[in-house]
Every structure is written in C-alpha cells, then in structure tokens.
Specification:
heterodimer, A: alpha/beta, B: mainly alpha, 0% strand
C-alpha cells in the first residue's frame, strides 16, 4: 500500500518578490514519500497581486484545500503554526544621508535637552553641592570633580545597558534591545495574523 | 512622648514605606539589576545587590538629612560621580527600552542596521548636555 500521509509545517515568515507565485514548497516544510513530495511541492497557492500591498497571510486551511483539490486521497497532518506571514519585499528605499543626519541631530539635541531638564527638575546641582560638602567638608559652587565623571558615566551607563562596548558577546544571551525588537515584531505579527487574515474574521449576517 | 509626636512618627514611617516601595518597584520595572547580573554572570549574588540598593538608599537619606562632614579627600568624588552617572545612564537607557522607542523608530524609518549609530546620538547628547549644563549653563 502506498503511504499517502503528508506532514506539513508552515514557515512563520516568508519574503517574496512582487508578482511572485507562491508554491507550497516556499512556505512549508514537508515530509512525504518521494513521489508525493514532488507532486505537492509545486502546488500553487497564491499569486501575489499589487493590491495586496506588503503583507499576505496564508491560512493552513487554504493550503489543505489546495492540496485536496490536487489529490483528494492525501492524508494531511499539520504541525506547528496555522498561518504563514508573507512579506512582499519591494525595492528597498535607500535612506538618504541628509535624512539620516537630520534624525541623528534630532535625537542628539533632544537627548541633550531632556537630560538638562531632568537635572533641573530634580535639583541635581543642589544635591551635588551638598554631597561635595558632606564628603570633603568644603562648599563649592561648581563641584566639577563630581560632575565631569558623572557626565561621562551617563553615557557609559547607557552603553553598558545595551551592551555595545562588548561587540564580542560575553555570552550567548541577546541584548535587551534585541529582545525588545523581537517582542515588538512578535506583537506586529500577531496583529497582522488576526487582522489581515480574511478567514479569521467573519460576521454572522 | 505625647500623641502628637507618635502621630508624626507614624506619618513619617508611612511616607518612607511608600517611597521605598515605589523606588524598588521602579527599579524592578527597569530591570537594571538583572541586566548587570547577566553581564557579569553573578546571578547568585542577586540578594546582595538588593541589599546594596537598600543600604544605598538609607545612607543617602541619612546623609542628605543630617549633612555630616566627613573630610574625605576630594579625589574620591571622581569614582563616586562616575558610579552615579553610570547608574543614571542605565536608568535612562532602560526607560527608553520600556517605552519601546527603538523598535518603533527602526521600523518607521527603516534603518534597522544603523540603529547603533542613532543610539550613539543619544549617548553623546546625554554626555555633552550634562557637561554643557555643569560647565556653562549653571552660570547663566
């Protein structure tokens, strides 16, 4: 008897070009007996259209349907995620250096102003003068001996937190920024899976 | 001791309790201590770090309320200032992280590969802003 079982696991995220045809082999890992594997590999699932913009969701039910249409006798076993996010990659727009510099200086001066506002807000100067007096016994108007290392420490603290000095990873653990980027991407993915997937939404008329 | 001073003691304790709890809660949300233990691989010492924070807060409070004069050499302030700055810098970095600034910025303007350079803008902004304030701005 011929083994007719196919195991399918959808990939989480796939990048395609505009006007591509999406085949099963592009979006899924498949385990099947050889001939069958070849047969369903080229099962066409979707034709990317311009009005799709850049996110398309392919639901597992759509995949199952397409395979069944091809060969109704196949037993399909689905493992893993129940949809694939297809991202259509249009030509990457190059960010101009002028634009980049503008953002850089926006952040630079913004950061400068916020730290100054923060210091004023918490009366940092007062606290530092008092601290200087407590430690050394003399009062000074500008305790620069404290303030200059403090300023350098500010930047150092940020760098340490994001772990950019140690380019060679100290350990395998990702930096907070990488984790944060990952979490944000996951949130976005969950959103598009829910909202772009037409099969997920229905209204009882 | 009369009723009035007992009442004042009670209010002082209550105020200290809520401020202390708030401070610790804030530190916990920012996750600076876990980050430091992760970098230095000293997870086992975490309880000692907690004590460092608590003792630091208490010593700071006493110092600012009593204003003792310790007559220490002023060179010590360099290390003190550096440590204080690093702590505030880490708080600032952690705060931007909690607020999800970087992922959104990177997505919006599509510069995921240059994010380090942008981060340096913030870092230098903080350093120069602070230096500018202490060396020039306060005189005006």
């Amino acid at each position: 008897m011929l083994e007719k079982t196919v195991y399918i696991r959808l990939r989480h995220r796939v990048f395609v070009q505009p006007k591509d045809k999406i085949f099963l082999k592009d979006i899924a890992q498949i385990i099947a007996e050889n001939a069958l594997h070849k047969q369903i590999n080229d099962c066409m699932l979707y034709q990317v259209k311009t009005e799709d913009r850049n996110i398309i969701i392919i639901d597992i039910l759509h995949v199952v349907e397409s395979i069944k249409k091809m060969n109704p006798t196949i037993d399909i076993q689905v493992v893993g995620p129940s949809q694939t996010i297809i991202e259509v990659v249009y030509k990457k727009r190059k960010i101009s250096p002028v634009y980049f510099l503008l953002i850089w200086f926006l952040l630079f001066f913004g950061s400068m102003l916020t730290i100054m506002n923060f210091h004023e807000d918490v009366s940092m100067q007062d606290a530092q003068q008092k601290l200087y007096k407590i430690m050394t016994g003399e009062s000074v108007e500008k305790p620069l001996l404290f303030q200059i290392p403090y300023s350098i420490g500010l930047g150092l603290g940020m760098i340490i937190f994001f772990n950019h000095v140690f380019k060679k990873r100290l350990n395998e653990e990702p930096s907070p920024l990488e984790v944060e980027m990952f979490n944000y991407q996951q949130d976005l993915d969950r959103y598009v899976v829910m909202h772009e997937n037409k099969e997920n939404m229905s209204r009882k008329e | 001791m009369n009723m009035r001073s007992l009442f004042v003691i009670f209010i002082g304790l209550a105020g200290g309790l809520s401020v202390g709890a708030g401070y610790v809660a804030f530190l916990t949300v920012l996750g600076i201590i876990p980050r430091l233990t992760q970098l230095s691989k000293t997870m086992k010492m975490i309880q000692l770090y907690e004590w460092a924070v608590v003792l630091g807060a208490i010593v700071g409070t006493i110092a600012i309320l009593q204003e003792p004069h310790m007559h220490l050499p002023s060179v010590l302030l360099i290390g003190f200032g550096l440590a204080g700055g690093i702590f505030v810098g880490m708080m600032a970095a952690a705060l931007t992280e909690v607020l999800n600034v970087w992922p959104i910025l990177a997505k919006r303007i599509g510069i995921e590969d240059k994010i380090v350079i942008l981060m340096m803008a913030l870092v230098f902004g903080k350093i120069l802003g602070s230096l500018f304030q202490w060396m020039y701005f306060v005189d005006h």
